[in-house]
Design goal:
By secondary structure, the protein is an alpha/beta fold. It has 2 domains: 143 residues, P-loop containing nucleotide triphosphate hydrolases (Rossmann fold), CATH 3.40.50; 241 residues, no CATH class. It is 43% helix and 13% strand. The protein is built from 16 helices and 12 strands. Strands 2-3-4-1-5 form a 5-stranded parallel β-sheet. A 5-stranded mixed β-sheet has the order 8-9-10-11-12. Helix 4 packs parallel to helix 5. It is globular, with a radius of gyration of 22 Å. The two termini are 39 Å apart.
Length: 397
């Protein structure tokens, strides 16, 4: 265990506390069992170490360890927890818990056996976390970490502190809000770069290899996690990759399941189930006419990739602009607000607002006569009336 403490000290010395994700302040860090889930690369480990560095005692009472450490190839997690508590441990930070078999049951046992111990854990396997809900229900406080919003990206890049906007305020005062922001930066100067590189904070490490790393993570989900955790036939992996390429190249993708299943050689029910798994794994984002009571065998009305960086990682240039714009809107707005498919525009938000997405010359024809209807236009710095710049919706979280 001494080596684990030593490695923890090294990580604490290296962690940067200049920039904090907003999610950090949304977590109640006082809970006894706290889970942080999110796609690989969104910053869960950094969040964990930042909290430890600033708010936990830096002695034998606190320890961070990743469960992919070779130490756990022989040691049982419950035994490790027992030893840690016996030596005065109070705060145990467990990273990548899904790398350890039977982690949920052993975490539950450790929680029950040690009422004075706090455990904070992370998992990059969203599917594994969903599987573990029964074991952890009523015990763990779970938080989901999404990638950087456009607002967070700007704060990360420029050292600014732009606040989150509420949707109602944005719709009512977008002219003033966009104008105030435009006095402090040129939003369109940074927007294109964000769409390509800004969603996962690890873009800072090596931008040249950024899209390759995204592809590697996605292949891990498709080739290992889905077959292992959702019993997806490994023979269908290449067909699912083909499906993702279809989604990326569409304008955007409105699935005809019957034709699609015939085209890629998967029967209808299996295909709809696989689509559901892709959304569970945060690779795709689905839109339904009625977002309530969605079942696993219900086909979506529109499918997007989960974020715009995925379009650039897997798509062939040029990226379809309509797909890119709607993917951005769905990703940024869908974090806090309910999205549904709309016959009149592209999106119905919170069963109240209709949005039509397009370029700077987009007209209001499709939403003419509708109340609470807005045109969201790309390539404009400021809008007027019911026409709002697309980039501003990146300030909603």
């Amino acid at each position: 265990m001494e080596k684990l403490f030593f490695k923890y000290r090294q990580k604490i010395d290296q962690v940067n506390t200049d920039f904090f994700r907003d999610a950090y302040h949304e977590i109640d860090w006082s809970g006894r069992l706290i889970g942080l889930r999110g796609a690989r690369g969104v910053g869960k480990t950094t969040l964990l170490l930042q909290h430890s560095k600033l708010h936990l005692p830096q002695d034998e009472r606190t320890l961070y360890v990743s469960l992919d450490n070779i130490y756990f190839s022989e040691a049982k997690l419950v035994d490790f927890v027992d030893e840690f508590v016996q030596k005065g441990g109070k705060h145990l930070l467990l990273d990548e818990v899904h790398k350890y078999p039977n982690w949920a049951q052993e975490l539950k046992n450790s929680y029950d056996d040690h009422p004075n111990l706090q455990i904070i854990f992370t998992s990059s396997s969203l599917l594994e976390i969903l599987n573990a809900r029964a074991d952890l229900s009523r015990r763990a406080d779970m938080y989901t970490l999404q990638g950087l919003s456009f607002r967070e990206y700007l704060n990360f890049e420029l050292g600014t502190s732009f606040p989150v906007l509420r949707l109602d305020d944005l719709l009512q005062d977008h002219f003033k809000l966009a104008g105030d922001l435009a006095l402090q930066l040129k939003p369109l100067q940074h927007f294109g770069e964000y769409l390509k590189f800004g969603y996962y904070p690890f873009y800072k490490e090596n931008k040249a290899l950024y899209h390759q790393k995204i592809e590697e993570v996605t292949n891990l989900i498709l080739e290992i996690e889905l077959p292992l955790l959702r019993s997806m036939d490994i023979a269908y992996v290449n067909k699912i990759k083909q499906l993702l390429r279809i989604i990326i190249s569409s304008v955007p993708f409105k699935p005809n399941v019957a034709k699609l299943s015939e085209r890629i050689g998967i029967n209808r029910n299996t295909l709809v189930s696989y689509l559901h798994y892709l959304e569970e794994a945060k690779l795709t984002n689905h839109l339904y006419k009625d977002a309530k009571g969605i079942t696993q065998l219900q086909k979506p009305d529109k499918i997007y990739m989960e974020n715009t960086n995925l379009l650039y990682a897997f798509g062939s240039p040029p990226i379809n602009e309509g797909n890119l714009r709607e993917t951005f809107f769905a990703n940024q707005v869908g974090k806090r607000y309910q999205l549904e498919y709309s016959e009149k525009g592209d999106f119905l938000v919170d069963s109240r607002y209709i949005f039509e997405i397009g370029g700077k010359n987009k007209k209001k024809d499709q939403i003419q006569g509708e109340t609470n209807a807005f045109v969201v236009a790309d390539d404009i710095e400021m809008g007027i009336g019911n026409k709002i710049p697309l980039w501003l919706f990146g300030f909603l979280y």
